[in-house]
Amino acid sequence: LTPVSEPVSGGSDMLPKDAAIVDAFRSVDAQLKVEHHKVRCGTTATSLYVSYDRAKDRWSVKCGWCGDSRAMMIDADGKTNAPLSIDHRIERADELERIEKLTKSDLLPNGTPASYITRRQNSRGEYGPKAVFSGVTGISHLMTRSIGDPHGAPALIPDAEVMLKEDLANGTRLVLASDGLWDVYDEAGVARAVRNISEPARAARKLTLGSVSRRRQHGMSEDDVTVVVVDLSSPFPDSPSSTTSTPSKIKIHGTWSPRK
Fold first, then answer.
1. Rg (the chain; Cα; Å)
2. What residues contact 120, with CB distance under 8 A and at least 6 apart?
3. Bridge partners of 46?
4. Which residues of 25-61 are buried (b: 16+ CB within 10 A; e: fewer)?
5. What is the spatial distance between Cα 216 and Cα 253, in angstroms, rounded to a whole number?
6. Widest distance between CA atoms in the chain
7. Nearest to 143 by CA among 199, 204, 103, 95
8. What is the model's pLDDT at position 89?
9. What CA–CA distance (Å, rounded) separates 121 from 63?
């Protein structure tokens, strides 16, 4: 999860182009596959790019993501929320269609698919939801996109998707988190949990501890809970058209539940 520490000034036109974000994700993927080629897993990634329009006293936010670490926004009233990303998982019809096409066109020398979809198995038989398997290594993933995974299926691409939200008011809250949060909270639940908490540090801590508690109750692992909360606030609350050179500010706080 990569929050931007200082916003760009000048509206959404000043934010990175979509193609540049996609290229950056691909570049990091290539680098990780070389430097960590012995590691049998990759990572998700979610990046936010923030711009403040001083003339309009409004914010623009662009989210680039790969995998199932999710981002969302909560309006200043604390009652309305909207996604900033959509998980890359087999449950998405477009992702499923993309991979199914590859299972027919991307074949190994023996004619079997380099990537395929099925359920995992143990000594008792199949279990869990369907996953994306590598025809070479047999390694499987529940997500359909990932960064830095040299042993995953070829269908497990590092390409980021991008979503832009404009005309956001001061007081808008952004929440980025790994699937450790989203496995046990939906967007509405997150919004309710932090509605009356003014400080992003306290909001992030509440979501993290709440996720760990819920995961324990359901017998789930607690080593992948990461939460970042970002509050957008203008330095010019009384005069949006002020000519002062003071930069816009955002408040950021992240918390992590360590491995047990």
1. 20
2. 126, 127, 128, 131, 140
3. 65
4. bbebbeebbeeeeeeeebbbbbbbbbbbbbeebbbbb
5. 24
6. 69
7. 95
8. 96
9. 36
For the chain (260 residues), the mean pLDDT of every run of 10, in chain order, is: 52 88 96 86 92 90 96 91 96 96 95 96 94 95 94 95 96 94 95 92 93 92 86 69 44 51
Tokens standing for 57? 């006293």
Query: Exposure string (b/e) for 214-225, b if CB count within 10 Å is 16 or more?
Result: bbeeeeeebebb
Q: What is the pTM of this model?
A: 0.85
